[in-house]
Amino acid sequence: MKRNRFWRKHGTKYIFGGAALISLALSSNDIKQNMQSMSEIRQQLGSQSLKQTKLSEQLKFEQIQAKIAEARYKAGCVLVVAPENARNLATIEEGDIITDRNNGKPLPDNTVVCSGAGNTGVIKDGKVGLIAFTGNRDLVLDQVKRINGAKLYYYAPSKEIK
Fold first, then answer.
1. Mean pLDDT (the chain, rounded)
2. The dihedral of CA 152, 155, 157, 162: what is its sign?
3. Helix, strand or coil for residue 159?
């Protein structure tokens, strides 16, 4: 009698609970796969977000550098020519030593130098430092034209084939 009353009172709960446990046991592999795929998607989204953040920061850095380099060109930076041929502009890099072509002495500190490739720098302790780059080719060519009468020709850079 007690069993009958207990079964009538709680039977449907046990049937639904048992059915839920059976369905959970049968679908456990699907649940694991879904959890793994969701974890992979989260990782991909995280790495894409990190990459996007880095690209945004790089773009901001490039824009700031371009403004600095353009200001240096407009103010009249000293164009640097190649040591082998004064008709060709040289590319300047951090740490380069720039010398006067006439007397061979290094340029004085705080001299602003620029290249035909869009790099500008400031001489500190006899070496180029504080490099800034602009991709504004027109501004670079305007600087070349600004040195009226100089026998200086600009050739587009080429890459050496290995």
1. 78
2. negative
3. coil
